[in-house]
């Protein structure tokens, strides 16, 4: 359990949860997360009008965390006319920093593959170890991936090693998607891309601008409810992988961008 005494050097941490059809995952995720962090703390769900009614579950849950900003809070943005993972996180970052004045922002998948209890380890890497960006990593000592099959793990290995070769080894899990960062870093590096390639771009740019990256190991576990938005079939992996490779090559060619 984190020590609330640690909360002296920041005023608010906000975790953004981008959701599309995560009805059965979102409640346990929020409850486990909020049980493992000190106050004040905000969870901000960005839901793209999920047909399974994820947003309804969040609306109901939000009313039982009514003591924000003094205690822990849950807020919802239900987007009707927009869709997409990167744009959802971007929206969350904007709201977290400008509406709620968060100075540390984190985000993660909502399929319970990333343990909610590990979120505060990322935050502590910022508060206690002086990181500007903390990256949840499957590919450093202590981390691993027991969620994915052999094909997905091999593709992830190829993409990450290609990224390390061309962009450097400040990160070992360039496609992590499990991130905490100081607001100042997020203001200076807007997320670019449609899906997971934003993470390669963001980590590379943060490293190039001299921000301090710390990797925090985590164990990626299988989703137990709902459907994956990526791992539908080999074709889906390859078409997403193509964008990841294009992002790595663009960053390698253009050292300033
Ligand atoms: N708001 C929003 N969230 C999305 C969208 N697409 C995916 N997500 C969320 O993004 C996160 C990642 O999606 P996952 O289904 O876990 O897909 P993935 O992590 O790429 O694939 P796996 O490795 O199979 O888990 C989850 O929290 C999804 O609900 C979208 O269009 N809008
Ligand atoms: Mg996932």
Automatic annotation (TrEMBL):
InterPro entries: DPM1-like, Glyco_trans_2-like, Nucleotide-diphossugar_trans. It comes from the Bacteria. One of its GO terms (molecular function) is dolichyl-phosphate beta-D-mannosyltransferase activity. CDD domains: DPM1_like. Pfam families: Glycos_transf_2. The keyword Transmembrane does not apply. Keywords: Glycosyltransferase, Transferase. Residues 16-188 form the Glycosyltransferase 2-like domain. The keyword Transferase applies. Belongs to the glycosyltransferase 2 family. This is Glycosyl transferase. It comes from Aphanothece sacrum FPU1. The lineage of its organism: Bacteria, Bacillati, Cyanobacteriota, Cyanophyceae, Oscillatoriophycideae.
């Amino acid at each position: 359990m984190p020590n609330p005494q640690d909360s002296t050097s920041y005023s608010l941490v906000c975790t953004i949860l981008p959701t599309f059809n995560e009805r059965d995952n979102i409640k346990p995720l929020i409850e486990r997360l909020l049980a493992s962090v000190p106050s004040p703390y905000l969870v901000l769900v960005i839901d793209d009008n999920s047909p399974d009614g994820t947003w309804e579950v969040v609306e109901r849950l939000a009313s039982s965390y009514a003591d924000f900003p003094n205690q822990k809070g849950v807020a919802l943005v239900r987007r009707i006319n927009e869709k997409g993972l990167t744009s959802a996180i971007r929206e969350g970052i904007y709201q977290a920093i400008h509406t709620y004045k968060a100075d540390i922002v984190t985000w993660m998948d909502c399929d319970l593959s990333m343990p909610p209890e590990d979120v505060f380890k990322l935050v502590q890497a910022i508060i206690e170890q002086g990181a500007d960006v903390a990256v949840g990593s499957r590919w450093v000592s202590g981390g691993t991936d027991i969620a994915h099959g052999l094909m997905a793990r091999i593709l992830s290995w190829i993409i990450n090693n290609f990224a390390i070769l061309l962009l450097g080894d400040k990160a070992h899990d360039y496609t992590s998607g499990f991130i905490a960062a100081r607001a100042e870093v997020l203001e200076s590096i807007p997320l670019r891309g449609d899906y997971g390639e934003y993470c390669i771009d963001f980590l590379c740019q943060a490293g190039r601008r001299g921000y301090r990256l710390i990797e925090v190991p985590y164990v990626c576990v299988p989703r137990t409810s709902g459907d994956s938005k990526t791992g539908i079939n080999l074709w889906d992996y390859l078409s997403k992988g193509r964008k990841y490779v294009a992002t790595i090559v663009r960053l390698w060619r253009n050292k300033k961008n």
